[in-house]
Amino acid sequence: MSFHFVKPDVNINFIGRRKIGYTVFAVLIVLSLASCILGNGISLGIDFAGGVNAQVRFEKFVDDETLKKGLDLPELPGLSVQRYGEVGRDYLLRFNSDNSPIELRTRIEESLVKAFPDNPASMERLEVVGPKVGKDLTEKGLSAIFYAILTIAVYISGRFEQRWMAAAAMAACLWGATYLVGLTGVSTGILVCVAMAVTLGVCFFLRLNFALAATASLLVTVAVAMGVLSVMQIDLDLNVLAAVLTIIGYALNDTIITFDRLRENLRLHTDKPMAELINRSINQTLARTVLTCGTTLLASVALLVLGGGVIYSFALTMTVGVVVGTFATMFISCPLLLALGDTAFYVKASQKEEYEKPGEHGMV
Predict the structure, then answer these.
(1) The pTM is what?
(2) DSSP character at residue 230
């Protein structure tokens, strides 16, 4: 007797529950934006903002408030303290300085001895990033996310709608728009936001519905992940950037699998309405989705619980992104594809070619 995580004949009405999905994701996006804009905001880590990170371990327990008051010294300007690793003993110190690493290490050690003479502390790690390096990393990180999503939109347009020329036109329009906006001297962040808006607008204008639905789903996934990081006051560093790029690819993979099954169903069932075909495609790929999502979550949750502070931000972003990206495919990409209506591709895909069977009209 075979074992199934999902029954082969499962028929969950995802499309019928799309309004619930829209509502849940709308609430999550509003809360994420509220936290990023009005709340804690997105705190840039040392990789992007520049500064000094020092990981220290005390021999004895020391609480947060005592540590903050004890290290409130002129030698450590702009100091912030974050609990790290073993509770009460490991802490991450962050402050601003232009000194060399050797001078910084000496300054930190002297400050710790001065503040806690009866509780020796050892320096576990020291990182120094200059402001120019941080600015370059910020620009490259934003550009990496944008070009990843743009390439995805171009690929999906050509792959699923066979409209490579329209995809090329979209890329050309986007390049022209970003070039003109870039001449105004705006920041990279604003430029990327403008470019993403242009991408969605061009997809809608050219009726590249598959690309528009997939891109919107990816943006929702990234927005919710950033909101969680903002609420939990986790710095945005290179680990988080790596996780964001990973979940973009992961969420896209799940969306492409579902879209590919939909394309097959469009050719096989020309008499079925679009809503039924989309719902059937989600259910047919549900077993694969559960297995892929489940095994990925096992790894990411293990890293989250056992990986320690160094990889915590990466593991948290991955865990949130995998969950949100999976549900975004079911309740954002596919319902949005239905809401955008039929296109020429759907009509063409529904017109199954008829072939004359050998011997059907006499001997051959």
Answers:
(1) 0.75
(2) H
